[in-house]
Amino acid sequence: MDWSKAKTILILTFLLLDLFLGYQIIHSYNRDRAGMPQGELIPSSMEELLQSRHIKLAVDIPAGTPEMYYLYVRFTGFTGHMAKLTGQSETESQGNGVIVTFDGPLLVPNSEDRMDLLKFMEPYIPFSSDYLYDTRSSSTYTAHYVQTYQRYPLFSVPMDIRMKGSRVFGYSQTHVQIISQGNGRRVIPALTAVRTLLDNGYIRYGESISDISIGYYGHMYDADIQVLAPVWRIIHTNGMQYVNGITGAIEQIPVLEKK
């Protein structure tokens, strides 16, 4: 046997093996950076997974799994209610809601406190006490509120107050009536919802998770009765997703509903 030739072949074989293993490591790392599911490469613990993808968890993950329901709701008609209000020069329909513009800007004494703002607006906005301020979806010129049911936000039922500084120019509003509810079931843990988004590539390498909250959400269609499901709403650097609290499925947000 030509040992010199055999030795050369053996060295070349190990070199090719090293190159192949190096390629596998780099390829796996790049896939992880892209935030794509890793199958068996995903670490078992949440802490390891977040660290491996350099994802910052800026809020505590809620520990509770309350009993919630599917809600069956109907849009509220505004015609009779708007006639009782004053100072509104223009009212137009917007799908199943309304857009209102005031005769002139309203001066708000304490516009920075958005719950005080809501109390101030009670004479001008019907059902205003049914809403809760949503700081995560608000902006400098829009105070965003959502209707609530049993203290839980109905993310699909918003009210936006248009303002600049201490002046309020108008608002847009949707409101629903709760018709009935399904049987109560405990929702999945928030940890499971976050993991679902991580495993499916919605939260990517280097992002930050800024809010995890529970409430109700549904796609609003042109139908008499709408269905709202319990959801975990998760806000991160590049988006916002809703994970169904009963089935664990990711609710796909129609293009027009994206923030």
From TrEMBL:
Pfam families: YycI
Ranges for domain Regulatory protein YycH-like: 45-239
Tree of life domain: Bacteria
Cellular component GO terms held in the UniProt record: membrane
Protein name per Swiss-Prot or TrEMBL: YycH protein
Lineage, opening ranks: Bacteria, Bacillati, Bacillota, Bacilli, Bacillales
